[in-house]
Amino acid sequence: MECTIKWLDGMSFIAETGTGHLVAMDGAPEAGGRNLAPRPMELMLAGAGGCTAFDVVLILKRGRHDVRGCSVRLEAERAESDPKVFTRICFIYTITGRKLKPEAVERAIHLSAEKYCSASIMLAKTAEITHDFEIVEAD
């Protein structure tokens, strides 16, 4: 896996992933940025959220559960001094489906957190990670 980051101007950067996708990043105005794109640390949270969402949906589908939707909201706190690593992250899942069992959803989240989601497992080296979920019955 690879990624190339190119400085544009000010505090704006473009990342090109190994698969050829582009992601813009920008800094806060007080840091010389123009606030045109997410901050790198926001992208880390988005990556962890995407990683676990992929896992949970895949695990539920493989278990033949009728999952129809999945969203993950991440609430994070960072250290006050440099390096400002994440110190606490709460993953809050909303899983939509038909007749989903809480035990199945909890198992999928646990497997993601403990075995499959490389991003959240890596972040757990500095942050206290918690998980919560709700199930929404699909029409």
Automatic annotation (TrEMBL):
<dbReference type="InterPro" id="IPR015946">
    <property type="entry name" value="KH_dom-like_a/b"/>
</dbReference>
<dbReference type="InterPro" id="IPR003718">
    <property type="entry name" value="OsmC/Ohr_fam"/>
</dbReference>
<dbReference type="Pfam" id="PF02566">
    <property type="entry name" value="OsmC"/>
</dbReference>
<protein>
    <submittedName>
        <fullName>OsmC/Ohr family protein</fullName>
    </submittedName>
</protein>
<dbReference type="InterPro" id="IPR036102">
    <property type="entry name" value="OsmC/Ohrsf"/>
</dbReference>
